[in-house]
Amino acid sequence: MRLSLSLSLLLLSLFLPLCFAANVTYDRRSLIIDGQRKLLISASIHYPRSVPGMWPSLIQNAKEGGVDVIETYVFWNGHELSPDNYHFDGRFDLVKFVNIVQQAGLYLILRIGPFVAAEWNFGGVPVWLHYVPNTVFRTDNANFKYYMQKFTTYIVNLMKQEKFFASQGGPIILSQIENEYGDIERVYGEGGKPYAMWAAQMAVSQNIGVPWIMCQQYDAPDPVINTCNSFYCDQFTPNSPNKPKMWTENWPGWFKTFGARDPHRPPEDIAFAVARFFQKGGSLQNYYMYHGGTNFGRTSGGPFITTSYDYEAPIDEYGLPRFPKWGHLKDLHKAIKMTEHVVLNSEPTYISFGPSLEADVYTDSSGACAAFIANVDEKDDKTVQFRNVSYHLPAWSVSILPDCKNVVFNTAMVRSQTAMVEMVPEELHPSVDLTNKDLKALKWEVFVEQAGIWGKADFIQNGLVDHLNTTKDTTDYLWYTTSIFVNENETFLKKGSQPVLLVESKGHALHAFINKKLQVSASGNGSDITFRFKQAISLKAGKNEIALLSMTVGLQNAGPYYEWVGAGLSRVVIEGFNNGPLVLSSHAWSYKLGLQGEHLGIYKPDGIKNVKWISTREPPKQQPLTWYKVILDAPSGNEPVGLDMVHMGKGMAWLNGEEIGRYWPRKSSVHDACVEKCDYRGKFRPDKCLTGCGEPTQRWYHVPRSWFKPTGNILVIFEEKGGDPTKIRLSKRKVSGICAHLGEGHPSIESWSEAENVHVKNKAAVHLKCPGNAHIATIKFASFGTPEGTCGTYSIGACHDPNSTSLVEKVCLNRNECRIELGEESFDKGLCPSATKKLAVEAVCS
Ligand SMILES: *[C@@H]1O[C@H](CO)[C@@H](O)[C@H](O)[C@H]1NC(C)=O
Ligand SMILES: *[C@@H]1O[C@H](CO)[C@@H](O)[C@H](O)[C@H]1NC(C)=O
Ligand SMILES: *[C@@H]1O[C@H](CO)[C@@H](O)[C@H](O)[C@H]1NC(C)=O
Ligand SMILES: *[C@@H]1O[C@H](CO)[C@@H](O)[C@H](O)[C@H]1NC(C)=O
Ligand SMILES: *[C@@H]1O[C@H](CO)[C@@H](O)[C@H](O)[C@H]1NC(C)=O
Ligand SMILES: *[C@@H]1O[C@H](CO)[C@@H](O)[C@H](O)[C@H]1NC(C)=O
């Protein structure tokens, strides 16, 4: 009987969202779904930035983290490869993604754009559209509007066909048109406003039955809701009193560019921003990103956006929850949800307790009460008296009191466990095949590209062409080649002096080969994509071949008229001749698009035989323009895998024809400023808490497990400038340890008994959970008392219960997760009575 009841409940909960249309509307306070105001936590997960095999667990991890809604962009240039040629397979299977969200019982926000920015190549707009004559993006331009409407309609129809809109019983509760256009609308002059109004009108006329949003669109016309994107949105107000206050992008970290430092946003500050938003009447908040993922292949924008789009998001690039960020936000979501009914159905009373100290108190007609108390001081902790009770608030923090009495959460007091994550290198496992008789050694095969034109030139022209106009982004690579004649009587041939090559480029990167030898490499960076250099070179008497390999590293993805930003060489001069500088800019240049290996598809299983690979035990090192191929077994275990490229130069990698993407272990400068420890207090900026000075911005490149077969995997690397392939490793991302610590009197959600709706003292508990199915194998450290240090470096303080370890072992060993209540376990409570005691635990999972 009980079984069949729970079974039918299960079936009901499975099919409910599938069968019944929901009525999504809004008022000034929130979205209203079937007559209920909703307070919603949303999470950006972009389907092409992971693989279908990861989607269910990513979405499940988001759900467990207290998320109600998944938000994704739609990536036009991944779907419409050429006009009317649509692609929805593999990572681009949008329908499958939405289905998984629906099955998880979550809502979805579909940000169609179709311009999306998103650090995605060309902002998501197909490059071919730029070459449709008379097209200007994102303004009152007939061509752009035609193609934008066509694609938007295509996606809307696809979603309607699948009954994905909430109005049809599906998960989509909101849809977005355009993206952050309000910030640049004025730059487009007379074309700006009419375009924005047209976009809104065009969207509304799609009749999707759920509201449309436009983010950062200050003039969004009714009924389209304008929403906020920022690190903080508590001060945001929508452009009409009938629209709810919604936050489409809260950035819990930041993206990275090759050669830059590693940004971090502390969880205390993210939680502070979110709590402030709901304190000040917000009703829907989205983390951009909740899982950032990977810019596989050539999908990253920029230029110079790394292949990793980890974003320091609550779920890391590899799909593992990032602690303590994920856990702290989960606790926050729980606390906020406890206030949902009261805050959405009453008006706040504002109380100022003095400078930087304020509360918003929501009391409904039934007498239910919820309060947010904030200390926005950037330095000092403060104490306030609220309803005759004294509350301590750390600087830059918000306390949440779902009953106006008990603090269940303070944004600056992290209770969640932390985790130590390592990339554990594994030797490449040679794969057994018929040609590989010695089972222990890797068999490498090598193919070397020509420096310069291979085969026939694509065209010859006087002067330097624009790189992007020429390749139209069919490849990163464009050869500019010419030759010069050097007389024997040139002074630099006799004296020790050297001629100097001067190059100016609109971007993004360059390798200069002279007489087939790589003599200079140069590139722009995330702050200035153009570059120029002067570098001494070697020339010989007679004919000299100048072959310049120009490269794009992800196309511009945002900014006014971004599609017109050029790339490639703009000036080439050689100085040091007897007759003065030799200006080559207007010489006759021969051009070749792309590499021979690219043309022949030698990184794909069906193209691999298109060149003659040279077998070798000892692959050449530090050799430019080299393709490497090796057959591997999958790494052991089931942890996520990253390709360690720290000993390589720059290039691209593939596994079994799947595009891992661009690698470039480019280092940031040792002279930059980095922080030891990030102070969460005060306004966050992307450059506030940087680490990794002098380190490669990206060392590991995610290779999804689902791309591996057990054996016979083909790894192909194209190295541009030279590296040591024997040092390539597949590293496994492992949680080496988990830690948690908690002090007596720490606010705790668990101290709130939902069933009885009362506060139970001393229920505060340390919670430990190993990833996946791993279990707690060892308690490395446990101390109830006054332990010191942080995860990985805990030590016993002046006060310590010697039974701590055995008590924790009893509760936790061999379990996937455990909780140890400070109050209930038999810790020695008599220990040093004057001290505030805490429990710190470090455990090893296996
Ligand atoms: C949807 O809800 C709104 C208000 O919340 C109401 O006015 C409208 O009649 C509802 N529509 C349907 C089809 O139920
Ligand atoms: C606070 O204390 C004062 C004096 O003790 C009392 O009059 C008042 O009712 C109390 N207020 C609340 C909200 O408990
Ligand atoms: C160098 O050689 C070129 C061509 O052979 C000649 O025209 C020129 O006068 C020579 N210059 C000198 C300084 O000898
Ligand atoms: C980027 O390049 C420009 C121009 O070469 C240079 O001035 C600037 O310092 C570089 N910035 C970084 C972060 O390396
Ligand atoms: C091609 O490049 C040149 C130089 O950057 C630019 O002026 C021109 O507008 C470009 N054409 C297109 C269609 O982008
Ligand atoms: C430690 O545990 C033992 C046995 O379980 C008990 O006899 C002893 O009193 C405990 N010590 C402390 C300091 O609590």
Please provide a written account of the structure.
The protein is α+β, with helices and mostly antiparallel strands and 846 residues long. The chain has 5 domains: 25-339, Glycosidases (TIM Barrel); 341-413; 420-449 and 599-733, Galactose-binding domain-like (Jelly Rolls, Sandwich), CATH 2.60.120; 459-594, Galactose-binding domain-like (Jelly Rolls), CATH 2.60.120.260; 764-845, Rhamnose-binding lectin domain (RBL) (Jelly Rolls). 16% of the residues lie in helices and 31% in strands. It contains 14 helices and 48 strands. Strands 4-5-8-9-10-11-12-14 form an 8-stranded parallel barrel, surrounded by 4 helices. Strands 22, 36, 40, 42, 46 and 48 form a 6-stranded antiparallel sheet that branches. It has a 6-stranded antiparallel sheet with strand order 34-23-35-41-37-38, with no helix packed on it. Helix 8 runs parallel beside helix 9 (325-338). The longest helix is centred in the N-terminal third of the chain and has 20 residues, at 142-161. The protein is globular, with a radius of gyration of 30 Å. It binds 2-acetamido-2-deoxy-beta-D-glucopyranose (NAG) (6 copies). Keywords: Apoplast, Glycoprotein, Glycosidase, Hydrolase, Secreted, Signal. Residues 1-21 form the signal peptide. Pfam families: BetaGal_gal-bd, GHD, Glyco_hydro_35, SUEL_Lectin. GO terms for molecular function: beta-galactosidase activity; carbohydrate binding. This is Beta-galactosidase.
